[in-house]
């Protein structure tokens, strides 16, 4: 995706500014030609000479910007750009971009660029969480700018939080999965999509529950891909350890019953549903009000379980013909046969069948391999690839199905 692309990399002031140099290298390794803009603050952390040597091209800075020789550097650079990438992007840079300011070389170049734009934030966790930064993030998303979700981990301040700059290799692999042309960034615009994620929890008592191995990664990747394709996304999620994806509305749930209620009340106002949640099939017949204690006469404890409601089955009964419903099938054997049965039984438009018996892919990992089964009988197997890449493919199938309805 980056092969032969002209990437303008805007580096702003941050302890992560030096990682901009490694990122320039990674972009080149992926086949891009890179030119760099440094903000005044970035120039206090790293030098233009480093980037000029790496990119073998002049670096645009505030010094010497606007010459009297008739060259208008920021317009020339903006017109050259196929992809504008701001990384690391400070809170201040995001605020400039979100408000359309053009008072320095970086912001003027950004504003003048018509190419797709991606922001990779890096900042202190409190600055990231500040209402103003989140407002700016929302504005950028509304303007069609992709905003990657910063990593959570140890910050330069010595404490942990969300706001860490993503690793350059991770940024480049995320760029490969982003819909960056106008066609894909608007493939689902105007559509409201419900996405479910994570493993539901069925309470035994106030401190114990039954659950499964789902990490929620697949559902979160689908929510992100749908949002990046222009959809209005509601992510209904069981508890996970994942950061909230940019620009989606999150509805937290715990049990299968709560998930069913959340889906069924929102379904009439939605255009589609992707059921990526790993739903518990059984729940305790009764949950104890108080913690179950060990006593001298309970060496064995018998749990009585009953079936949970099948949400997709209930959805099928209420679904309008214009709605697109996608299910997943977690199988340990007879993947295609079982998948096809679920597709028919649950009246799905598309089913992603997943072999969960393999240790290298599936439940907890970052990679997956699915076979897409379509209602018209054809199927399509993906290679083993990142869940993000699979989510992007799934969303492009959803867009095609909407077009055919
Ligand atoms: N699903 C659902 N409600 C349930 C169980 C599952 O809506 N009570 C959804 C899942 O979110 C998934 C699809 O149905 O999209 C298939 O889930 P899976 O666990 O593979 O299949 P089940 O229908 O539960 O059948 P089995 O466990 O017997 O394979």
TrEMBL record:
Keywords: Decarboxylase, Flavoprotein, FMN, Ligase, Lyase, Magnesium, Metal-binding, Multifunctional enzyme
Gene label: coaBC
EC assignment: 4.1.1.36, 6.3.2.5
Cofactor binding: number and manner: Binds 1 FMN per subunit.
UniProt key word Ligase: yes
Renumbered residue ranges of the record's region Phosphopantothenoylcysteine decarboxylase: 1-192
Pfam families: DFP, Flavoprotein
Cofactor dependency: FMN; Mg(2+)
Domain of life per record: Bacteria
Residues annotated as binding CTP: 281, 291, 309-312, 328, 342, 346
Protein name in UniProt: Coenzyme A biosynthesis bifunctional protein CoaBC
Domain (Flavoprotein): residue spans on this chain: 5-175
Family classification: In the N-terminal section; belongs to the HFCD (homo-oligomeric flavin containing Cys decarboxylase) superfamily.
Chain ranges of the DNA/pantothenate metabolism flavoprotein C-terminal domain: 188-400
InterPro entries tied to this protein: CoaB-like_sf (IPR035929), CoaBC (IPR005252), DNA/pantothenate-metab_flavo_C (IPR007085), Flavin_trans-like (IPR036551), Flavoprotein (IPR003382)
HAMAP family in the cross-refs: CoaBC
Job description of the protein: Catalyzes two steps in the biosynthesis of coenzyme A. In the first step cysteine is conjugated to 4'-phosphopantothenate to form 4-phosphopantothenoylcysteine, in the latter compound is decarboxylated to form 4'-phosphopantotheine. Catalyzes two sequential steps in the biosynthesis of coenzyme A. In the first step cysteine is conjugated to 4'-phosphopantothenate to form 4-phosphopantothenoylcysteine. In the second step the latter compound is decarboxylated to form 4'-phosphopantotheine.
Pathway: Cofactor biosynthesis; coenzyme A biosynthesis; CoA from (R)-pantothenate: step 2/5; Cofactor biosynthesis; coenzyme A biosynthesis; CoA from (R)-pantothenate: step 3/5
Database matches in Gene3D superfamilies: CoaB-like, Flavin prenyltransferase-like
């Amino acid at each position: 995706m980056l092969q032969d692309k002209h990437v303008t990399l805007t580096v702003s002031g941050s302890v992560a500014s030096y990682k901009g140099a490694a990122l320039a290298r990674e972009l080149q390794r992926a086949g891009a030609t890179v030119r760099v803009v440094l903000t005044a603050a970035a120039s206090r952390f790293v030098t233009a000479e480093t980037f000029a040597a790496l990119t073998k091209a002049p670096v645009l800075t505030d010094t010497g910007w606007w010459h009297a020789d008739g060259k208008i550097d920021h317009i020339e650079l903006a017109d050259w750009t196929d992809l504008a990438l701001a990384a690391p992007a400070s809170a201040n840079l995001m605020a400039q971009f979100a408000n359309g300011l053009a008072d320095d070389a970086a912001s003027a170049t950004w504003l003048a660029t018509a190419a797709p734009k991606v922001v990779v934030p890096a900042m202190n966790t409190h600055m990231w969480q500040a209402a103003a930064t989140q407002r700016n993030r929302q504005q950028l998303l509304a303007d069609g700018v992709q905003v990657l979700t910063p990593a959570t981990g140890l910050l330069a301040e010595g404490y942990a939080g969300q706001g860490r700059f993503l690793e350059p290799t991770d940024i480049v692999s995320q760029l490969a999965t982003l819909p960056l042309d106008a066609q894909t960034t608007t493939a689902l615009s105007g559509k409201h999509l419900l996405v479910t994620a994570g493993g539901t929890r069925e309470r035994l008592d106030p401190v114990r529950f039954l659950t499964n191995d789902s990490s929620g990664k697949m559902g979160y990747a689908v929510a992100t891909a749908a949002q990046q394709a222009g959809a209005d996304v509601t992510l209904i999620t069981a508890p996970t350890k994942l950061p909230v994806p940019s620009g989606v509305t999150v509805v937290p749930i715990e049990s299968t019953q709560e998930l069913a209620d959340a889906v069924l009340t929102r379904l009439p106002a939605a255009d589609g549903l992707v059921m990526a949640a790993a739903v518990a099939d059984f729940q305790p017949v009764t949950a104890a009000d108080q913690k179950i204690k060990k006593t001298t006469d309970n060496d064995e404890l018998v749990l009585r379980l009953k079936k949970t409601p099948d949400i997709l089955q209930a959805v099928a009964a209420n679904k309008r013909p214009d709605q697109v419903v996608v299910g997943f099938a977690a199988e340990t054997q007879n993947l295609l046969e079982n998948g096809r049965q679920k597709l028919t039984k649950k009246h799905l438009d598309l089913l992603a069948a997943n072999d969960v018996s393999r240790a290298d892919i599936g439940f907890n990992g970052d990679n997956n391999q699915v076979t897409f089964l379509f209602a018209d009988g054809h199927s399509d197997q993906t290679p083993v690839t990142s869940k993000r890449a699979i989510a992007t493919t799934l969303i492009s199938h959803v867009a095609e199905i909407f077009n055919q309805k």
